[in-house]
Specification:
The chain has 121 residues and is mainly β. Helix content is 4%, strand content 48%. It is built from 1 helix and 11 strands; from the N terminus they run E-E-E-E-E-E-E-E-E-H-E-E. The protein has one helix at 101-105; strands at residues 3-7, 10-12, 18-25, 33-39, 46-51, 57-58, 67-72, 77-82, 91-98, 110-111, 115-119. The strands form 2 sheets. Strands 2, 4, 5, 6, 9, 10 and 11 form a 7-stranded mixed β-sheet that branches. The chain has a 4-stranded antiparallel β-sheet with strand order 1-3-8-7, with no helix packed on it. It is globular, with a radius of gyration of 13 Å.
Length: 121
């Protein structure tokens, strides 16, 4: 009973920044763990950020220090701030949601439709 809609993707130059948004239609958004995945052409899907209902965040080494996940429970929205982008960040980015953080990590839960991020000069 969760619906997710990503937005904010687009074309950006190397070194640039982009902020993705994920709007959730759910009655109890504040209870959900949220995550962002990405899938680059010809590559495996990669979890790039998670945030718990309590606000704890986690990132893999590939994006740590450059990406920041945050949430606004009043707006039922989760964000992914991406800085210092490089061509390796080019991918379709997906928002995910589940009451259990473990479901997010195991690629379960509910997924949005994705938004394209292209980093190119």
């Amino acid at each position: 009973q969760v619906q997710l809609v990503e937005s904010g993707g687009g074309l950006v130059q190397p070194g640039g920044s982009l902020r993705l948004s994920c709007a959730a239609s759910v009655s109890s958004f504040s209870r959900y763990a949220m995550g962002w995945y990405r899938q680059a052409p010809g590559k495996q899907r990669e979890l790039v950020a998670t945030i718990t209902s309590g606000g704890s965040t986690s990132y893999p080494d590939s994006v740590k220090g450059r990406f920041t996940i945050s949430r606004d429970n009043a707006k039922k929205t989760v964000y992914l701030q991406m800085n210092s982008l490089n061509p390796e960040d080019t991918a379709v980015y997906y928002c995910t949601a589940d009451l259990r953080l473990m479901a997010i990590i195991k690629q379960g839960g509910t997924w949005g439709q994705g938004t394209q991020v292209t980093v190119s000069s």
